[in-house]
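User: Hi! I'm working on a homework problem where we have to compare a predicted structure to a textbook description. Could you give me the structure for the chain below?
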Amino acid sequence: MRGTVALGPYLTGAIIISKTTLDSKLARVYVETFIMTVTTEPEALLSHLYKADGSATYSHAGYTVIGAVNGPIEAQKRDELPEEAIVDVIVRPAAGVGGTRERHLESLLQSTLRQVILVNSFPRTLIQIILQITVTPENEYINGKLVQANVNLPVLPALLQTAILSLLSASLPMAATLTSTSLAIIQEDGRPHIVTNPTARQVEQSKSFHVLAFTSQNELILAESEGAFTLKEWDDIYGAAYRKCCTTASIGDTDTLMDEGTTGADLKRFTRSIIEQKTASDLHWK
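Assistant: Happy to help. Predicted C-alpha cells:
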C-alpha cells in the first residue's frame, strides 16, 4: 500500500507501507521504504531513524542524502580531546566503496561543522555524523562517461544541509545554522553568466564552479572553488550566493533576482521553517 506524507510547506514525502498491525490501544505502522518526492524545491524529513539520536533526509537539486547523528558519546581514550568533543563525519557514496572523493568531502564537512557545533560543551566525547548519498542527478553520466570536472563539490551543499538538519534533530547545541548553495560561471554569447544549482552537464561546460555556505548570522563560513575566474567574477559569485542564502525573497526584489540568475528556493526561509516544525513537534506534549 502506498501513501503520501505532508509535514508542512517544506516537509513532504511518500512512503510504502508493507505491514500494519492493529492493537486495541495503538495502531502501529511499519514503514519499509521512504522515498522523497522529486521536485525543484528542497524537501526534508526529520527524526525518522529511531535508533539514531538525530536523523534527517534532505532532497534538492537532484541529490537525496540521509543523515544520522549519534552523540555526544564516549570517545576512545586514544582519540579523546581533553577540552572539546571530536566531530567525526562519514560520507558514504550512492554506489560502491568510498574513496578519495569521500575523504575530501569529509574533511570539508568536519572543518565547517566544528565551527558551528559547541564542541567545548562536551569535552572527551565523540559526535558522529553519518551521511549516506542515496540519489544523484540522472545526468551525472554523459554519453556513458562520468562527469569528472568538479566531481567533488556539487554534492557538498546537500551534505551540509543534511548534516545541519540531523544535528537539529539530535538537539545538539550550535552557535548558528548553515545554508549552502552551488554556482557555476558559464560563457553565453561571449559573456559570463552565473547559474545556481547547475546540472552535471552545466558543471562540465562551466568556466568555474563554486560552493559557498553562510551562517544564520549572514557570515561566510565555507568557500570552495574550482576552475579559472577573475576577482570581479568572484565578487559576482559572492553576491549571488549571499542573496540566495542570506536574504528572504519578496515580491519587490523578484526582478533583481531573475537578472542575476538566482531564482529558486529561499534557503533561509526553508531552514527557518524546518526549525519551527521541529520546535513545535518537541513542545507538542506541553
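For your comparison, note the following. The first helix runs from residue 100 to 113. DSSP finds six helices and 14 strands in the chain. Good luck with the assignment!
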